Amino acid sequence: MTAFSLFWKLHWIYLLDLVHFAECGTFFTKALREVSYIQNVSEQNHLVFALKSDPQSVVYLYNDVFKTGAVAMGKGSNPKIIFFAIDCDYPEHLHTSDLATPTEYSWLWIKWTGTQLKFGTGKTPGVDLVYSTPFSHDVKYIGFAKYGRSTESHWIVGQTNEHMNESEFKKTEGRRIRDTSSAYHVSSSFQCAEFCLSLNGCYGFNLSLKVNGFSVCELIQKDMEYIMCNDIDSLDWTVEENSTWTHYYL
After folding, report:
1. 194-224 pLDDT per residue, tens
2. Cα gap 113→45, rounded to integer Å
3. Worst-scoring range by mean pLDDT, 16-30, 108-122, 219-233?
4. Pairing label, strands 180-186, 215-220
5. How many Å apart are CA 26 and CA 50, to the nearest integer?
6. Distance separating alpha carbons of residues 110 and 103, to the nearest angstrom
7. Domains in the chain, ordered, with CATH?
8. pTM across the whole model
């Protein structure tokens, strides 16, 4: 075996190792009143996540286009309060213990049933319910943000805190989202996934067909400002139907 071929094999072993151990599920939100990470939940009716933060972290619920509601954990300096923002109504509930702390992760869940929006603690949706309220909107995406002035809110998305890898991405062929932050030339989807997993706030990527052995990898990242309930808060993604591209999302 030549030195070059040995180097090439070791190179790919190292690359795949990086992809496997990249911390896709862990990220933080820092900008005040901006959504910096979006999770696709169009094929499910719940989301499990962990939060480590001072009070006043928030998740926003979206359908395909607009914001349909929000769930805030903490109010003022009280980490026991949870309140919802739905159709300009703000029901709140005082829990018996802190929903989040700045020193360790707390596991939480959100579930939407078509008639209700439910919130609870732990890793099992439907168990350890904290509060629920009437809610009839579709939920296709969840955005993570903060509306308080703590330094950072740290999140983990998924059932556990295990590292995620390239296989976690779903894909839609013939689709390209144009709201991208950076682009690279890569030789495989594994490389593109590695770039996305290592970028805080990256929630997907576009991958072109190969030309001369390389594809264009476009990372998707979009900050959205906080919008009051009586204004239109639109995802406003620019989508292109293009047979030479594939859109990957979490």
Report:
1. 788 766 667 788 999 999 999 999 888 765 5
2. 7
3. 16-30
4. antiparallel
5. 9
6. 22
7. 3-24+165-249 (3.50.4.10), 26-157 (2.60.120.560)
8. 0.64
